[in-house]
Amino acid sequence: MRTRIATTVAVLLTVTVLGVDLAAQGPQGGRGGGRGRGGGFALAPLLMETDAFPDGGIVPQKFAGRGGIQPGFTFSNAPEGTVSYAIIFHDLDVALKNSPEDVLHWMVWNVPASAKGIPEGKLPDGAVQNRNYFGPGAPAGPRYHHYVFELYALNANLELTPMATREDLLAAMQGKVVAKAAYVGRYRTEAQ
Fold it and tell me: What pLDDT does 41 receive?
């Protein structure tokens, strides 16, 4: 009988403690107010959009290769305190030099938050890029490559020269990222 009472008390105590802990986490069920089932951390749902092609869609030839035009994007839903944006554009489907490194096509930073995006074929005043836009250029074949535009909302401008590498940019953004979004395009060169 004592074992049964002790077990019942232990169960009730555990349920009470868990109930208090879950109530303290808020209505989302997670400490950070995240929207996922497991709770977790909370980052603002930053949006990056373009009329150039649908997210996950085929990149038109107009935006491909060395002569391609940089697509325009609008940015919305940035958290308060966003000062600038940075973009890293790369091909996920290539492993260079027997390493996990992929192909970097373009980087830009210090895009003013007030610009709310980048217009097609140019950048807002104040933005810095490490090289001109180099559009998708997958080799001929049946497989599409996946090109991702990673957008970072930052709480500061970055002190980098146009010669900065991806590693330099990532290091400079450390501790300044307040939100992130991505936009993916697929591209392949038709076999001749």
Answer: 65
Pick the residue with more confidence: 22 or 157?
Answer: 157
Block residue for tokens 């953004």: 173
**Distance of alpha carbon 134 from alpha carbon 137, whole angstroms:** 8
Contact present, 178 and 154 (Cβ < 8 Å):
yes
Four-CA torsion 141, 103, 148, 118, nearest 10 degrees = -120
Query: Which whole number is the average pLDDT over 124-137?
Result: 94
Report residue 161: phi and psi, to 5°.
-90, 165
* Alpha-carbon 143 to chain mean position: 24
Inter-residue contact 100 to 110 (CB < 8 Å): no
CA distances from 94 to 21, 66, 117, 191 (A): 45, 18, 28, 18
Q: Which two structure tokens, joined as six digits, stand for 71?
A: 């697509």
Domains in the chain: ranges and CATH:
1-42 (no CATH), 47-187 (3.90.280.10)
CA–CA separation, 7 vs 13, rounded Å? 10
Residue 40 has pLDDT above 80, yes or no: no
Closest among 52, 47, 45 to 186, alpha carbons compared: 52
Mean pLDDT of 95-119: 91
Let me know how many helices (H) and strands (E) the chain has, helices first: 2, 9
Token pair of 43 as six digits: 């980052």
